[in-house]
Amino acid sequence: MNTKQTPDEKRRLEKVINKSYDVIEKSDYISRDLSWLKFDERVLDQARDVRRNIFDRLKFLAITASNLDEFFTIRVGSLYNYIDYGKERTDYSGLRELPFKKTLMAATQSFVTETHRLYKEDLFPEFLGNGFRVIGLNDLNHEEMEQVLDYFNRTIYPMLTPMVFDHTHTFPSLLGKTLIFGVVTKSEGERTESNINESRKISFVQIPQNLKRFYVVEREDEIMFLPIEEIIRHEIWKLYKNVEIESVALFRITRNGDFDLVEHEDSETDFIDEIKKKIKDRRLGRVTRIEMEGGCSEWMLQMMLKRWKLEKNDIFFSDTLIDFTAFWQIIKHAELKSKQVVQRASVPALGQLTQKPENIFETMKQGDILLHHPYNNFEPVLQLLEQAAEDPQVLAIKITLYRISKHSRIAEALLHAAENGKHVSVLFEVKARFDEENNIREALRLQKAGCFVIYGIPGLKTHTKLLQVIRNEGDMVKSYAHLSSGNYNEDTAKLYTDIGLLTTDEVLTRDISEFFNVITGHSQPHSYQRLITAPRDMRKSLVKMIQHEADNARAGLPSGICFKINSLQDKITIDELYKASQAGVKIQLIVRGICCLRPQRKGLSENITVRSIVGDFLEHTRIYYFHNNGEPKVYGGSADVMVRSFDRRIESLFEIYGTQVKQQAIHILDWNLKDNVNAYTMQEDGSFIRCASPAECGDDAFNIHKKFFEVNAAEVMEAKLFQEEEMIEEELGTEV
């Protein structure tokens, strides 16, 4: 088998791809996986942006690589779960699993080719002018080379272990997302024309993950980054003394990390043990991708493809560096040296809230407060927990945790609260993907301190973000709450845009109490007044409000829908949005990532527009707006419009009810619709067009990732959605 495609193979593949795209174009829905790839293309577009400094551009290139790792670990891994076990699956695009995989891999190959072109042609030439270089060994002087060799002999060499595969040694368990050398060797004196393949041996040398990717050489006028693999490649002969090395090639594999848990309702220990077992299994899951440098041994590559049951289009060849996530080391080094990246100071929220309230309880009594992170500091949320932990009047704290930071002030506050005799209930979702180990460790620590810890709900992921503090205030017991679209993670709160509501509203806090009783106990509430929850009734509630807007449009009443979400994938909800569009409802969707709805299709979705915001901050906010004949209903919360959110997760959306906080949410949507720097508009075919090129923005640039740091109360109160139609109606009425 030759790993290079023959002309006939290329023609056959092109025929399959062309036929697949004919099917895709006819579908009323966009493929989730192809849509995800379009999102990573928008992230890559940030690396093209010449307005950004070189370190920002490298950052976005590293993010695309990290995203692609997760894509192959989860999405392609999930696809292989169907292919490997003969299960049928029809994608939203209308394609069955095998033709869809060919189409997906072809699109991914094109994307990866572009990432390497961008690095080699656009970014790499900019390094020298910015005071650094990525170098080879030939760029070192004699003294520097001696230091590098000393580093290899003292630090690297003792950590390396060649693992041979032959008739007496089993194929080694290679780690995913790790740089590995594949080495083909032959003992001296064995080679003959007749036994060349039989006498060959292949061995693998994994580069230890706890070694930094680049060896740094600092000169007076520049900083040089030497890839560690080049040091090992130069010295790898020391591992194969008296053996002929036929070829050495660097590669990296990605493994399937998509797994289902067999949950035991009757045993907490079994449940945790099952998660730990699955984490280990993930490390040895089926291989979904090979990244390989060019010029590798065909014989070795054939063996790997056969071993891992892969095809030629599962190999991604590189003529530059493998694994662009390595650039984080350069970026962090540059931040320390040049201080080019400066975190902007957040601004106070509207209302009575300061950055660090002296008494958060007194502040919250004055009215609801909507926090918009990172523009508003996360500090008030931390203060609520930290003051609650110390306040003798606080009786109880309840919280749901999905992802927390490594050195979490949230966890420390909960520990202190338990030590101070408060009743602390923590629903800790230990099934949060890739955070399982950290969450299990922190949950056990809280449990040992005396917190009442629940390790998630069998069969569901707890994704809702809720915090409640119960305080004895003499003649009454008062509830203080925080509801959010984002995690209780003070680190990501500086990088992700999210909203959080601080409230003492009795209706909403009563709903929260009921909800906690449901998810921590065995209770079924009659109804909620200002909460919408999943899996109970979220899809049904959203569909009902969409249908209400459609009814208003048919009756000639004002109508409109605006969602700001991360992902849109649920077919039932998409179909209702199509129907509302056909009824005349104007629908404006702001979807950061996956969007399976097809906008602007004649007769189907002509009144629907979709835009995506991709820029300095990761857009994570979820806001749902319904015009409601001039009396808007607005919700925020943890859920996207996805099947998993509605059917397989515990989620909540909270009504943003007060006049000021509702207006703030409307203002966030309004400015998201005005952004012309970070915004992309989705086309009917699923592609995205940037709203303006860097040169076109000029003085009219409207960049929400900067504007929200400068917002004032007057701008907030003036914001209004769907005002264009109303202004036209007013003008017509005046003329009459």
From TrEMBL:
Q: Which SUPFAM superfamilies match?
A: Phospholipase D/nuclease (SSF56024), PHP14-like (SSF143724), PPK N-terminal domain-like (SSF140356)
Q: Matching Pfam families, A to Z?
A: PP_kinase, PP_kinase_C, PP_kinase_C_1, PP_kinase_N
Would you indicate the residue range of the signal peptide?
A: none
What are the residue boundaries of the Polyphosphate kinase N-terminal domain, all occurrences included?
A: 29-134
Keywords annotated in UniProt:
ATP-binding, Kinase, Magnesium, Metal-binding, Nucleotide-binding, Phosphoprotein, Transferase
Identify which cofactors the protein needs according to its UniProt entry. Mg(2+)
The residues the record assigns to binding Mg(2+) are: R403, R433
Say if the entry is tagged with keyword Transmembrane helix: no
Q: In which residues is ATP bound? A: N67, Y496, R592, H620
The family database entries (PANTHER family) matched by this protein are listed as: POLYPHOSPHATE KINASE
Q: What is the name of the protein in this document? A: Polyphosphate kinase
The species this protein belongs to is Arcicella gelida
